[in-house]
């Protein structure tokens, strides 16, 4: 009898212990789910804030298209960085970088043919930053669809397959400038030298003379003096004196040369079509990044590429280009 009662009591005790262990398990699981849920919720929230930032910056561009479509310059509202916008437990900040202030690598080959003027311009730009102008050949080969090398510094599949490990030429337009590091003749050092002046956008994209840097514009001709061009850029940005037509550039003292390269004006513009929105969301002590590549056509703005990698400290287009060059050389 006593034994039986003892067994029954033990059984009950055992059941209680099992029940409470199970209950604890369920509770833990619930807590974990709640926790995971709040992380997801926070991520969702950060993403919504980031997209709101992109939307806001796109609105600035649409607004600019409505009010000042014939000219884009650094004095306009879209070019000013957003002051940090407070949100619950954090803030959103962002800016628009003008991609038309840079040389588009994909200008070298577009509409089914290589672009001679763009090719020569890029060669001069490479020279301005201290690199071999012949590197333009391997950059052209990387994106042209054929397998014919463009010169002694050109490179197609046979060159890349001989690397360790081997790979192949893209033979299509650059999707991002970082791709350049895979191209023959470019290592981290040479990439760093040219990176502040280049972009990779999907269409032929002329350089906006109202936002471009001194180094970039001094690549229009070997006869230009980079210091004088930079002086003109400084005056342009300080005095907010912007050009209403491309042709006016050649009447500026810094650009008066005996012979300007043939058909060079088609590489230039006074407006911008490509922008990059860079947005940082700080929420509950965590940072979330969004980079959106925007294409503006008329009064429409389209985000054609987005990524969420940390945003590198990109050189602003109106920073003294010579200073930037010196910094890059030191690296
Ligand atoms: Ca404008
Ligand atoms: Ca090719």
Low-confidence stretches are 313-329
Mean pLDDT: 87
Compute the number of helices.
8
Major beta sheet summary: 5 strands, antiparallel
Element-by-element helix/strand order: HEEEEEHHHHEEHHEEEEH
Strand residue percentage: 15-25%
Report strand order across the widest sheet: 1-2-9-10-11
Percent range of helical residues: 25-40%
Helix and strand composition category: alpha+beta
N-C termini distance: 89 Å
Question: What would you note in describing this structure?
Answer:
The protein is an alpha+beta fold. The chain has one domain (about 1-330). It has eight helices and eleven strands. The strands form four sheets. Strands 1-2-9-10-11 form a five-stranded antiparallel beta sheet, with helices on one face. The protein has a two-stranded parallel ribbon with strand order 3-6. Strands 4-5 form a two-stranded antiparallel sheet. The longest helix is centred in the N-terminal third of the chain and has 66 residues, at about 1-65. It starts with a helix and ends with a helix. The model is unreliable at about 315-330 (pLDDT under 50). One calcium ion binds near residues 68, 71 and 76.
Sum up the structure in keywords.
331 residues; alpha+beta; two-stranded parallel ribbon; binds calcium ion
